[in-house]
Design a protein that fits this description.
Distance between the termini: 20 Å
Strand content: 35-45%
Largest sheet: 6 strands, antiparallel, barrel
Radius of gyration: 18 Å
Strand order of the largest sheet: 1-2-5-4-3-6
Order of helices and strands: EEEEEHEEEHEEEHEHH
């Protein structure tokens, strides 16, 4: 589990293809004593497991599903990536609940500079646009952001100067692909409502059984 608050920006040093899978090497991760084998790290929003490490470098195995679902295919040696370690129970939840499980890939549709901030609009597959709501939260390449507006196939956000300086979105341009994770709560609610249509609807008992009470 993550918060969407990026800790540092790393750099891809190598990608070793292994058939439909791959091994990813990233440097500038974190000091060696702060990560361990088996740790979860969000790399551009993708939850990956540390399988090897060497000082400030770490290796991650990437599954075929990740290739299909995310913008990992655009990674190259030298690509800059947003990094966040998994949330500890004692941490403040400064962003929102982010699982590191990417829903889809969106494209930057428009970029505008507004008083030092960057306004970005994204085109998103219609099937996932329904999970994005105005003033709700969305994770773009692992960054927790507030949605300004949304339509059937697009949504917009504003990147404040601090976020731009600390993440890869400073370089985002129209046509760039990004990883999108929508708010997990909306997906659970939809699932419950769909189940309710087959029975008695959403009841207090149903909510309690599914951990919402």
């Amino acid at each position: 589990m993550f918060t969407g608050l990026i800790e540092t920006v790393g750099r891809v040093t190598a990608i070793e293809r292994r058939g439909p899978a791959a091994r990813l090497m990233v440097e500038g991760v974190f000091p060696g004593e702060e990560i361990a084998l088996g740790d979860s790290i969000a790399v551009n929003g993708i939850c990956l497991t540390v399988v090897a490490r060497d000082g400030g470098r770490a290796a991650f195995d990437v599954s075929p599903e990740t290739f299909e679902r995310t913008a990992f295919r655009n990674f190259r040696s030298g690509s800059r990536v947003n990094l966040e370690r998994a949330l500890r129970l004692c941490d403040r939840l400064g962003g929102h609940i982010v699982t590191g499980h990417i829903d889809c890939v969106a494209k930057v549709a428009e970029r505008r500079e507004i008083s030092g901030s960057i306004a970005l609009s994204f085109s998103i597959p219609r099937d996932y646009a329904r999970y994005v709501i105005g003033k709700g939260s969305v994770a773009i390449d692992g960054i927790s952001l507030t949605v300004n507006s949304v339509s059937e196939e697009t949504f917009s956000v504003t990147i404040i100067p601090h976020t731009a300086e600390q993440t890869t979105l400073q370089a985002a341009r129209p046509g760039d692909e990004v990883n999108v994770e929508t708010d997990i709560i909306g997906k659970y609610v939809e699932r419950l409502l769909a189940a309710g249509k087959k029975g008695d609807g959403v009841t207090l008992d149903l909510l309690a059984k599914n951990g919402f009470m």
